[in-house]
Amino acid sequence: MRTLRGYDRNARTHSDTQISQIGAAIERFGFTQPLLVDEHDVVIAGHGRLAAAMRIGMDEVPVIRVTGLSEAKRAALVLADNRIALNAGWDETMLAKELQSLQESIDAGELEFELGDLGFGEQELRDYAEILAPPPEAEEARDIQVTD
C-alpha cells in the first residue's frame, strides 16, 4: 500500500470543525470526490478529505493520479483548485428552497441528520429560512380592516 502525503506548501487551511464535518459527510454519503495526487503520492487537491479520512479510520481513499506536472504547474493547480471553488456563489432563493425541502424530509424521518450537519451555521439557516418567509408587511396587511 502506498502512503499519501500532503503538499508541503499547501496554503489552504482546514479547521478541526471542518475536518469533522468532512468526515461526517464521508460517513454519511461515501467518499464522493477522489483526491488528486501526483506520481509521488503527494496530494494536489483533497488535503481536508485526506485528514478527515484519516480521522475516521479509513485505510484507503480513492485518488485520481495527475502525472507529468512541473513543480510550478503543481503549485498553480493546488492554488487554482482551492481558489476557483471560492469564486462560486449561491442562488439564495434556490438554496433556501432546498434547505426547506431537506428540513421537511428530516421532519418526516426520511433523513437522519440535521441541516447544520451540512456545514451551515445556525444563523445562516435562520437567514435562509427568512428568505422564504412572507414579508411582515403582507401579514400586517391581512390584519388591517378598512372602514368607510
Which tags fit this structure?
148 residues, 6% strand, Chromosome_partition/occlusion, ParB_N, Conserved hypothetical protein from pyrococcus furiosus pfu- 392566-001, ParB domain, 6 helices, three-stranded mixed beta sheet, mainly alpha, ParB/Srx family N-terminal domain-containing protein
What does this structure look like?
This protein has six helices and three strands. With 148 residues, the chain is mainly α. The chain has two domains: 16-86, Conserved hypothetical protein from pyrococcus furiosus pfu- 392566-001, ParB domain (Alpha-Beta Complex); 92-138, no CATH class. Strand 1 (35-37) and strand 2 (43-45) form a beta hairpin. It is elongated, with a radius of gyration of 22 Å.
Oligomer: single chain
Radius of gyration equals: 22 Å
Coarse structural class: mainly alpha
CATH class of the largest domain: Alpha Beta
Helical content class:
40-55%
**H/E element string?**
HEEHEHHHH
- Overall pLDDT, averaged? 91
CATH structural architecture of the largest domain: Alpha-Beta Complex
Number of domains: 2
Distance between the termini: 85 Å
**Number of contiguous helices:** 6
> Outline, from the CA principal axes?
elongated
Uncertain segments: none
Short account of what is shown:
It holds the Pfam family ParB_N. InterPro entries: Chromosome_partition/occlusion, ParB/Sulfiredoxin_sf, ParB_N. The chain has 148 residues and is mostly helical.
List the helices and strands and how they pair.
Layout lengths: L15 H14 L5 E3 L5 E3 L1 H9 L7 E3 L5 H16 L5 H16 L14 H11 L3 H8 L5
Parallel strand pairs: 1-3
Antiparallel strand pairs: 1-2
Helix pairs in contact: 1-2, 4-5
